[in-house]
Amino acid sequence: MTLFELVVEKKVKSLSIIGMAKNVGKTVTLNYLIEQSTKRNMVLGLTSAGRDGEKIDAVFGTHKPAIWVPEGTLLATARKCVITSDARIEILYNTDISTPLGEIIIGRARESGDIELAGPATSTGIKQVIETMKDFGGELIIIDGALDRASSAAPTVTDATILSTGAAIGYSIESIIDKTKLRVELFSLKELKQSKIRQLAAKIVQENKLGIVANDRFKIIEQGDALLSGKEISAVIDENTEAIVIGGAVTDRFMMDLINIPYIDKIYIVVKDGVKVFFEDSTYKQLKRRGIKIRVLDPINLLALTVNPYSPTGYNFDPVEFLDKIRSAMYPLPVYDVVLERL
Q: Where do the domains of the chain lie, and which CATH numbers do they carry?
């Protein structure tokens, strides 16, 4: 089964593509999906969590693959990108969402060509343009994202997520597998099933605060910054604590402040979704050995992984070996090289 066939089989209507770093083949994956949807006469909608489609990489100075759109494609992008686009874009709707490149508009490509996407920076804005493009007939909406702006992968935003990895994140296949496997595991964290704890935890997350659940009640820790307050929260939890709830990001520093509490393995660590979790591999392994249970309120539907065996700095791996080793390490998650798929 090809990657596009998987998307169709799972009845995905909105899809985010998240790159683990620059130059891991995210735009190649996006262009593959555009090409395949065009062959099936699907009405496609495109936007970006931030800016994508620049012709020159700002870090490496290398040429980047352009985002090509066929006639009929729906777009949510900044007005300046419409003006500079190679494709001719008909403006259908003004969203009132502001960006440094102008208001986000909903448009339709009247002639095919290359485009630059500069979409909403917030999950609320992304949800808004997804629904608007659906109203204009979009059958599959794709959001171009990245780990540093992974709000598009949030399960409340898109139906499913594709993660892109590649040679750009490591100098050996083994190191690339380790880094990728960690992100896959974090994107695949289990959902919190305990209904009473879940209900109380959701109230803390809605406030975007840090708090605890104990004795069927919740308490918000007013200092509220999970980047700083691991020690503060460790001072207020005891054997009656059922959950520590983090409304924002959860980091190595925060968790290492908690790891030696005697009963921490009996307490759920609860976050909104896997997008909010940022651990080094060594920290995550320590947490697992300690028996710490991290749960999410909204699980991410990680559909597949795509791989790119080439690095912009000049080194690369044998494409078949690279795909086979990563596919074996990530099983049962489907893994694809969309360039090999075309051959």
A: 3-188+300-342 (3.40.50), 195-296 (3.40.140.80)
Provide the pairing of β-strand 104-111 with 44-48.
Answer: unpaired
Cα 121 to Cα 99: distance, rounded to the nearest angstrom = 8
Asked if 170 contacts 143 with a C-beta cutoff of 8 angstroms, the reply is: no
The residue behind tokens 């490591």 is 170
Beta bridge partners of 107: 75, 91
Q: 136: burial class by Cβ within 10 Å (0-12, 13-18, 19+)? A: middle
Quick one: tokens of 322? 């690279």
Rounded mean pLDDT, 283-302: 94
**pLDDT tens string 275-285:** 889 888 999 99
Share of the chain above pLDDT 70, in %: 90
Q: Which residue has the tokens 């102008």?
A: 102
Contact 249, 225 (CB under 8 A): no
Determine the 3-state secondary structure of 222 from DSSP.
coil
How is the chain split among helix, strand and coil, in percent rounded to 5?
35, 30, 35
Under 8 Å between Cβ of 137 and 43 = yes
Q: Nearest-CA neighbor of 298 among 279, 339, 270?
A: 270
Least reliable range by pLDDT among 6-15, 159-168, 178-187, 254-263: 254-263
Check residue 166 and give its pLDDT.
97
Structure tokens that stand for 160 in this block: 């499913």
Label the pairing between strands 51-52 and 217-221.
unpaired
In whole angstroms, what is the distance from residue 75 CA to residue 13 CA? 15
Euclidean distance between CA atoms 22 and 195, whole angstroms:
39
Closest CA relative to residue 16, chosen from 109, 130, 165: 130
Beta-sheet strands, E only, within the chain: 14-19, 44-48, 51-52, 67-69, 74-78, 88-94, 104-111, 113-115, 117-118, 140-146, 160-166, 210-214, 217-221, 241-246, 250-251, 268-271, 277-278, 293-296, 302-308, 335-336
